[in-house]
Amino acid sequence: MKPEKFSDWLRQSLLFINREPLAWLGYTLFMGVVLVLGRISSALGIFLSVSCLFVGVGIAKYIDIKSSEKPVSLSFAISKSLPLAILAASTIVLCWFVFMALANIFSGEPEKIGQFFFYWQLTPENLNHKSSRELASWLYGYANVALIFTLLMMTTFASWFSHSLMLFKNHTWSTAKERGNQAVAKHQNALYKLLGFLFLEAVLCASVTPLLTPVLYMLTSTLLYISYRNVFEG
User: H/E element holding 101?
Assistant: First the structure.
């Protein structure tokens, strides 16, 4: 098998998004609203953002087979993707909570642990006297950190391809991890460049272009699907 190239994945993903722009526009606008909830509850914001990230992979599959002999409805694609996305999101929230709780305990601030579940920050002091970029950076900053954290957890304890293999091939976690890691070894150069690109974009979205954070989530979902399709279904 010829090694895949990151540039091909990115080019194909951008072309793929253009196939169904209205579906992706709706997804991106929905993400833009959902991510604001992180300023009410970090746990809820992380849960919803990670869930939407992985549901986006299912939406990509829906778009890909829309013109095939066996198309499915968008609602079916979302409902099929949702259980695994919820499981993945719950795992990420749990891991984040453990790290956060330990950090607060060691720093002598255990009272802040409860703020992870509810901490209303949408106050006039936080919302007023800020430019649109500053406000977007404040609203979406955590989501970019959550994206990096999710990708690190996924590639450390599973593989880049594990979620797609579990969703589309009905593999167990262990089987998906094994097959995914085998594919990663064959396409290591492309995967490293892909992860480096996503980490860099997440950092830029956290500071320079925060309004593009929902777009970055949409692009990440598409890259997850396109890379999987090329390696396992190409």
Answer: helix 74-106
132 class by beta-carbon count within 10 Å (0-12 exposed, 13-18 middle, 19+ buried): exposed
| Nearest Cα residue to 54 out of 228, 230, 196, 224 | 224
Using DSSP's 3-state secondary structure scheme, residue 169 falls into coil
Cα–Cα distances in Å, from 174 out to 37, 163, 166, 178, 233? 33, 11, 10, 6, 20
Q: How sure is the predictor about 24, in pLDDT bands with cuts at 50, 70 and 90?
A: very high
pLDDT digits (tens, 9 = 90+) for 123-175: 888 788 788 888 889 999 999 999 999 999 999 999 999 999 999 999 999 99
Among candidates 40, 137, 152, which has minimal Cα distance to 96?
152
